[in-house]
Amino acid sequence: MTQLEELLADWIPRQRWFAGKGAPIDTLRVDSDHPLLTGEPGLRVLVVAIGQRGTVSRYQVLLGLRPAGTLREELAHAAIGVCDLGSGDPCAVYDAAHDPELTGLLLERLAQAPAARPASGGGGPVRFARLPGAAVRTGLRSLVLKGEQSNTSLVFGEDYVLKSFRRLWPGLNPDLELTAALAGSPYVARPYAWIETDITDDGAAGAAGGRTRTTLAMLQEYMRSATDGWVLAATSVRDLYATPEIAPGDAGGDFAGEAERLGAATAAVHRALARELPTDVLTPADLRDLAGAMMDRLHLATSEVPELHPYVGVLRTAYEAFARVDEPLPIQRVHGDYHLGQVVRTDAGWVLLDFEGEPAVPVADRRRPSSPLRDVAGMLRSFDYAARYQLVGSSRAPELAPAARAWAQRNREAFSAGYAFGGGVDPEKHQTVLRAFEYDKAVYEVLYEAHHRPSWLRIPLDSIAALAA
Ligand SMILES: Nc1ncnc2c1ncn2[C@@H]1O[C@H](COP(=O)(O)OP(=O)(O)O)[C@@H](O)[C@H]1O
Ligand SMILES: O=P(O)(O)O[C@H]1O[C@H](CO)[C@@H](O[C@H]2O[C@H](CO)[C@@H](O)[C@H](O)[C@H]2O)[C@H](O)[C@H]1O
């Protein structure tokens, strides 16, 4: 390993966005290293290949470089270390996402980029492109958005978010693809531009692997007056828990009106996606395959989290019932990882964000059409999370449990009603499909929490126990 690779092997596992926590790093190699700015400071785009238990994952690192000893105090938290990059002089290397002097350059390059459509255009190892008609303002200072994120998002002024994808899967990122397909919708933040490169695709062209056009980052409108759906829902729940004897509908912070409007917005986005992108219908064989994939996920999760064992039988029964559904199940492109943290409430209504799908799933799988009820199930799970998370480790949990159930039930029903009213299929009439998707999402969450937030593992486990009761 080079000095830089050694520093990265120490730094990357400590980052929130690193998906490989829980397994040691066996190999680390800088796959590609493209300078965007040479001199002092310097800026490079690195693609870092990390091998763990026989599998290679790739991550993007925007590397800032300054002469050793000149890293300003406010960038100390972004430091990766000091190394010699070949010039003979020691160099401070750091996460450039935190340095507005360097991120400003990205905005300039995006503003000057040629107009293109995603998956078209070319030229150079790191390419900047702009959607036709999208003018980008420059000279704005960036700040890194804080939060439990799988990626790193920068807010430029009050105008744009530059979402830089950390774990790179070969291919067009569905967030860019779907956001671009939905451009003009009042329910989506306007997309402007993107950055892409070609990365090694181990799955392509045999064992040698090919190079595949891959999205590195997407620039979109910053919804400045917006509040996160999770924050709004959590406030409503907190309000109810102050007086748990009151029915959620009579409590001052009732969320059902918002949940219903969110359901209608979701249906509108699904209809737009069905108009813009391919649709299909699942055959009985497809349904069996899907049920098989759900079982595979359950087995994987159970091998990692043995507390799932008691529910395997009930879950299998639900997946088998799903496999036997004998009505045509329409499929289309969907959000794929839908929850309250992916929607924001603006003055004008709900806006959906982050069409990336489940970050741990290969992009090729995430881009497959699916039932829109998968998204409905995701949001229903999120109401359950919002109701339960304040009970984790709380001595008031037994006292508050009935209020938690009532809040989740009321908002699940309101969301489903809004979804049907907004032109989506009526979730109430597709219980077998919905139940299987909800279980599958909860099993995904068991794995997600085991890897990222073990103290929240009880939330999906308790939900599975309740669904199975
Ligand atoms: N365009 C935007 N406008 C306003 N807030 C945003 C925007 N994009 C992201 N956010 C905020 O950042 C959070 C995380 O963004 P998201 O795209 O979901 O990233 P990740 O995939 O890393 O979770 C969102 O929950 C939202 O609060
Ligand atoms: O937002 P991401 O694309 O990074 O999604 C991942 O992280 C989410 C947590 O931030 C996770 O969502 C789970 O926790 C939410 C509360 O924090 C809850 O509202 C969701 O229902 C629950 O699934 C998501 O699953 C994961 O992919």
From TrEMBL:
The keyword Nucleotide-binding applies. Residues 11-99 form the Maltokinase N-terminal cap domain. One of its GO terms (biological process) is glycogen biosynthetic process. It catalyses: D-maltose + ATP = alpha-maltose 1-phosphate + ADP + H(+). Its EC number is 2.7.1.175. Keywords: ATP-binding, Carbohydrate metabolism, Glycogen biosynthesis, Glycogen metabolism, Kinase, Nucleotide-binding, Transferase. Pathway: Glycan biosynthesis; glycogen biosynthesis. Residues 259-380 form the Aminoglycoside phosphotransferase domain. GO terms for molecular function: ATP binding; kinase activity. It comes from the Bacteria. InterPro entries: Aminoglycoside_PTrfase, Kinase-like_dom_sf, Mak_N_cap. Monomer. Belongs to the aminoglycoside phosphotransferase family. This is Maltokinase.
